Amino acid sequence: MAVVIALVLVAIGSVTFHVLSPWWWTPIASNWGYIDGTLTVTFWITGVVFTAIVLFMAYCVLRFRHRPDHTAEFGPENKRLEWWLTIGTTVGVCVLLAPGLVVWHQFVTVPASATEVEIVGQQWRWSYRLPGRDGRLGTVAVRWISPENPLGIDPADVAGQDDVIIEGGDLQLPIGRPVKILLRAIDVVHNFYVPAFRAKMDMVPGQVTFFWFTPTRTGAFEGICAELCGLGHAVMRARVVVVEAPEYDAWLERQPTFAPRVASVQ
Ligand SMILES: [Cu+2]
Questions:
Q1: Which of 120, 140, 214, 239 is a plausible cystine mate for 127, CB 3.0–4.6 Å?
Q2: pLDDT digits 0-9 by tens, 120-164
Q3: Which CATH class is domain 115-263?
Q4: Domain segments of the chain: what residues?
Q5: Residues with CB under 5 A from ligand 1 (ion)
Q6: How far is the CA of 232 from the centre of ligand 1 (A)?
Q7: What is the pTM assigned to this prediction?
Q8: Tens of pLDDT, residues 202-251
Q9: Sheet harboring 237-243: ordered strands across?
């Protein structure tokens, strides 16, 4: 009887904890409501199945407990039940996977109007690069990386001269404009994650990964590294500030660009 009560308590406790949990999603600040929709579908399916199985176990422990005049019945085959379980599981797994495939497709299909912003991860900080007046980012290569040129921008590339470089400061983004985030890592694997945007992606040395989103709310949002990357992983924090377009333009004007920075050390 103690096992039955324990199982029922596990089921009730899990549901109650889920509903009353203080660790709920932060209010969303991007267009990725689909991500929350997918999570809700997953919560419902796994929650219902989990509760049903635990309660079924409690029922079996109670109903088929040992009694002196009771003998077990041997039933190795049950075609009907096997079919139902197979179909039920298949439908459940399909419903779990399908929304994810749809959302993933949207997540990596960048709208043509998106502006590019590059984020570079290294132990243990973030750097940002935004296109200057020409709207284009200059090419980069590992061989150009030096103390004066930590992001490895090609000094001969015209497009890179006006690139805005932010090291250790906040990243600002204008509200309502889609942005394509290009991700690079200089040393080990990092992952740029701003929970309020519901968007994250691994940054792999030697590759450029990306995702896109549209900020839908002004304010300051905390970013974290979501891939264990060494001793300082836990303090690898970022701040993304979403502002109105005029404020963004004024901020961008004040940021240092690549060309004067390189010229100053020559
Ligand atoms: Cu990291």
A1: 120
A2: 998 888 999 998 777 788 888 888 888 888 888 888 887 778 888
A3: mainly beta
A4: 2-65+79-108, 115-263
A5: 190, 225, 229, 236
A6: 8
A7: 0.79
A8: 999 989 999 999 999 999 999 999 999 989 999 999 999 999 989 998 88
A9: 171-174, 237-243, 219-225, 190-194, 199-203
